[in-house]
C-alpha cells in the first residue's frame, strides 16, 4: 500500500510570496537580462535571490497550522483576522504552541478542522477501504469496478503470509479473477446485443462495456486492490489514524502508519493523539465476549431474507415536518405548533407542502425541517451494493460482517448468458475456503468473499437525506443493485407518509413526479 500526501491548504499570502519569488527568479535568469549586467551586478543579484530564498525557507510556514492558529486566536484577540494570519505566518513556532494549547489544552478541537490534507491511497484492498471510508467527515473518490477493467491485483493479508492457508488463498482468488475475465468476455457482446440501438453509436460503447464490467465484478473478491483520493481535515485525520491504529487488521494498521508518516512533519501541533487505545482496540472483543455470556448470538436466524425492512420511524411524519416549519416561522413553542398542525385539514396540509415544494428543481435540497423525521431500515445487501451505500455518509450505517449464510446476489445478465453454474461453482469454492479459514482466522476470512456476498446493515436516514439518496440511487443511471434497494425503500416509505414524500424518486423522474403532484 502507498499513502502519498498530495496536497494541503496554505495561507494565500504564503502562496503569493512563493509565486512572486519564482517570478523574480524567472526574470533574473533570463539570458537577455544577464547579458546586460556587469559581473559585480550579476553576482549581487544572485546573492539577493539567494538571501530571499533563505529567508522564505527559514519561515517554515509551508503548513496549514498557521491558518488554524490564526483562526484559533479570533475569539480572544481583537486584531483583524488577516493580521492574525500574518502574525502566525511570521511566528510559526508560536503558532504551533498556540494550536497545542487551544486544541489539546482547552479542548477546542474544531480549530484543527481549518487544516486540510489531500491523499493518494494506492493498493488498498476493497475490504480495507470499507474502514478507510468509514469516517463521514472526509471526502473520497474511489476507483470504480463499474468502469475500470481490473487486473489480477489483490492483497494477501500480512497475518496470512506465513500460514498453511496462503497457497490456497492465492489460488482461489486467481481463479475468481480468471472467471471475472471470462464473464466479461461473454457479457460484453451480450450487452451490445441487448442494447442494439445504443450500440449503433460508438459514443455508447464505453457505457455498454461498463455494464459488462459492472456485472462481471460480482465474482471478484474483497481482497481486490483499489485506489482512491481522500480529502480530510486535521481533526478527522487524527481520529482516523488513532482508530485505524487500533484496528484488528494489519492492513488497516499499515494505512494508519503511512498516514501519520505522510503528515507528521507538516502538522505536528494539530495531529497529535494517534496511538491506539485499549478502548478502541478491545471494545468489539469485550462486547462480543459479554454478549456470548448472555447467549445472544443466535445462529440460523431469518432463513427467509428480506432485502429491505422498515424497523423504526416516527408517527405522524407529515405533521412533524409541518410543525417544525411552523416553529421556525412563528414565536410559538414546538408543542403549540404541533397542536396547530393537528387542527389543519388534509387539504390544508397538502397545500402547506405544496408551498414548501413549489419551484423546486431536481438538484435542490428539501428544507432542513425534513431532517426532523428519520427512518431506520434493516437491509440485506451485496458487497457491491454496500460499496455504493457507504458513500451516503450523512446516514447512520451499522453493519454486521459479511456471511455466506446470507446468500449471494447474482446479476441477471449472468443468468441470461448461461453462466450461472460457472458463477455458482466459484461461489461454492469460495464459501468452502471461507469456512476453512474462518475457523482459525475469522477476521481474515472476509477477504476471500466476493462482491456477490451479502451482509446485514442498519441504515438510519432522515427525510432530507432520503430525498438525496433516492434522487441519486433510484435514477435510471444508477447501478441496478443499489437501484433495487432504493426502489424497495421507496415502496415501503409510500405506505407510511402522505405528503412529505410526494416528490421522492429518481432524478430522471423528477419533472413527471413534480407535475403529477402540482397539476393532477
Task: Describe this entry's structure for a reader.
- The protein folds into three domains: 8-114, no CATH class; 116-293, 2-Layer Sandwich (Gyrase A, domain 2), CATH 3.30.1360.170; 305-409 and 452-520, Gyrase A, domain 2.
- 52% of the residues lie in helices and 12% in strands.
- The protein has 22 helices and nine strands.
- The protein has helices at residues 12-28, 31-35, 39-59, 65-72, 81-90, 92-105, 126-132, 166-194, 196-199, 205-216, 234-245, 250-263, 278-293, 317-329, 334-342, 346-357, 383-389, 412-416, 420-438, 463-473, 480-494, 510-519; strands at residues 2-8, 116-125, 138-142, 225-233, 308-312, 374-382, 396-399, 403-408, 453-462.
- The strands form two sheets. Strands 5, 6, 7, 8 and 9 form a five-stranded antiparallel beta sheet that branches. The protein has a four-stranded antiparallel beta sheet with strand order 1-2-4-3.
- Helix 4 packs across helix 5 and helix 4 crosses helix 6.
- The protein is globular.
SSE layout and pairings?
Layout: E1 2-8, H1 12-28, H2 31-35, H3 39-59, H4 65-72, H5 81-90, H6 92-105, E2 116-125, H7 126-132, E3 138-142, H8 166-194, H9 196-199, H10 205-216, E4 225-233, H11 234-245, H12 250-263, H13 278-293, E5 308-312, H14 317-329, H15 334-342, H16 346-357, E6 374-382, H17 383-389, E7 396-399, E8 403-408, H18 412-416, H19 420-438, E9 453-462, H20 463-473, H21 480-494, H22 510-519
Antiparallel strand pairs: 1-2, 2-4, 3-4, 5-6, 6-9, 7-9, 8-9
